[in-house]
Write a structure and sequence with these properties.
181 residues, 4-stranded antiparallel sheet
């Protein structure tokens, strides 16, 4: 039997086993990485839904029933937002989007700080509403564990696309505040 041919086969098998092992470890690592990324589930309770409905029934175009919350670093503050479409449009529904941006940060000692990437608004999907239709949805303000202990102010703007295709503010912008304790 040819020893060189046998040695080549054994080297090939060893390399194949090592390659499969490294590939398997890579797959396990990526799988664990994706499992650990937390999906943010935003829910509103029935009482909050009722508050939003009441504000919209009283004539508000954009409603935020509770505008201030205190949370611990590493958690999510959930606010409710209600929108009613009062835009005179043709027979087509109006396309809306919600923009939430940080506008202030104040520490406990009244010292100003800057808005950081450690406190941010969760993505809100664009939506369509027919004339006089109402929609309520949650707004999540996500705080990382390393977020600075302070009070953060966010401005909630509901935007729509007018007939020219430009964005315009619908109703009045609403401030919300998150204090990290």
């Amino acid at each position: 039997m040819n020893k060189k041919g046998m040695e080549l086969s054994i080297n090939f098998i060893v390399m194949l086993i090592l390659t499969l092992a490294v590939f398997s470890l890579g797959v396990v690592f990526v799988n664990n990485l994706f499992e650990k990324t937390e999906k943010i589930k935003l829910d509103m309770d029935a009482n909050t839904e009722k508050q939003v409905e009441n504000l919209l029934s009283q004539g508000q175009i954009v409603a935020v029933p509770l505008a201030s919350k205190t949370v611990e670093a590493g958690s999510v503050a959930v606010f409710a937002l209600g929108v009613v479409n009062t835009i005179e449009a043709d027979e087509y529904p109006t396309q809306f989007k919600v923009d939430v941006s940080c506008f202030s940060c104040v520490k406990e000692n009244d010292e100003r700080c800057s808005c950081s990437d450690d406190v941010f608004a969760a993505k809100i999907s664009d939506f369509e509403l027919n004339k006089n239709a109402k929609k309520s949805m949650p707004i999540g303000i996500v705080t990382n564990k390393k977020a600075e202990r302070a009070s953060y102010g966010f401005l909630v703007k509901v935007l729509y696309f007018n007939s020219a295709g430009d964005e315009a503010v619908h109703g009045t912008s609403k401030p919300i505040y998150v204090t990290i304790s």
